[in-house]
Amino acid sequence: MIWKGNDSKTTVTEFILRGFSDTPEMRLISAMFFLFIYLFALLGNMSIITAVTNDSHLHTPMYFFLKNLSFLDMCYTSVTVPKALINSLMGSEVISFWECVAQLFLFVMMCASEYFLLTSMAYDRYLAIHKPLLYGVIMSRKLCAELVLVAWSSGAVYAIFHTANTFSLPFCGPNIIDHFFCDSSPIMRLSCSDSHTNEEVGFAVGGCIILGAFALTIISYVFIIFTITQIHSAGGRQKAFSTCSSHLAIVILFYVTGSFVYLTPTSRYSPTQGRLVSVLYSILTPSLNPVVYCLRNTDMQMALKKLFIPSK
């Protein structure tokens, strides 16, 4: 719907989401597929949260961060997927203007918070491997809680800027978003004014956030790798590396997919590519986190066995 104001200018009051596919025949199939992925992500991340909470052996900083990561991933997927599924299954593709604003804000907040949280997890692994004798003193419960709080707060601050930067543009013409959720690039393409400045500002700030968090993560891993190479026994090196291999896999997967979206200028945005990459980092990556952490983590495997197969 487009509302006409007293100044004869029109203002968009709602948007139309294209959904997972442009082909009507494929929408139901894709919706059922992503419903399965979404439920798998919820079950996997909820299992990790429950297992870490119930098993006293996992009440350590590493698993505290993992539990928060799982909770963040549950929120992350729930911001976009349920609305897209409802639209696809019910045949209603409408999303109100303010609902779109809220969805973009929450999605960007979760996404940015995950970058900061992954950085905190890298710092945790650095202390555990590089300074094992001081690890218990430095990485206290208070510091863990503060790092998580900073991650969420920083994500919220960036989301406020990113959302304001996107919706400060006037929208008075087409209102069809060529995406399955409200993301900044396809929204900016609908603006009826020149969005070049907003695109450049968003690209610069987003780049600083992503590259800054990535640089801190890389610095942590440089020290980690250096420390591991100094360990004389092969078993010791393998054990040290196994404690951070799962986190490293998630970091690579999340940064590679996310950078394709937020480090690509809007002028080069491709709707098909945007949807594909968004599926990877907003749906598949959160669903793969439990799998990655459980495949190589014996403690987590044992905790999940206790959860689902309680001993008699």
Map the helices and strands.
Blueprint: E1 2-4, E2 10-12, E3 14-17, H1 24-54, H2 61-90, E4 94-96, H3 97-130, H4 132-138, H5 141-167, E5 176-177, H6 184-188, H7 196-229, H8 234-262, H9 271-295, H10 298-308
Parallel strand pairs: 3-5
Antiparallel strand pairs: 1-2, 3-4
Helix pairs in contact: 1-2, 1-9, 1-10, 2-3, 2-9, 3-4, 3-5, 3-7, 3-8, 7-8, 8-9
Structure report:
Helix content is 75%, strand content 5%. The protein contains 10 helices and 5 strands; from the N terminus they run E-E-E-H-H-E-H-H-H-E-H-H-H-H-H. The protein is mainly alpha-helical and 312 residues long. The chain starts with a strand and ends with a helix.
Q: In percent, how helical is the residue content?
A: over 70%
Overall pLDDT level? 83
Q: Helical region count?
A: 10
Radius of gyration: 21 Å
Which strand-content bin applies to the residues?
under 5%
Q: What is the strand tally?
A: 5
What does the largest sheet look like? 3 strands, mixed
- Principal-axis shape equals globular
Which strand order does the major sheet show? Answer: 4-3-5
Order of helices and strands: EEEHHEHHHEHHHHH
User: What's the end-to-end separation, in Å?
Assistant: 61 Å
Which residues sit in consecutive blocks of at least 5 with pLDDT less than 50? 1-8
Structural class, by secondary structure, is mainly alpha
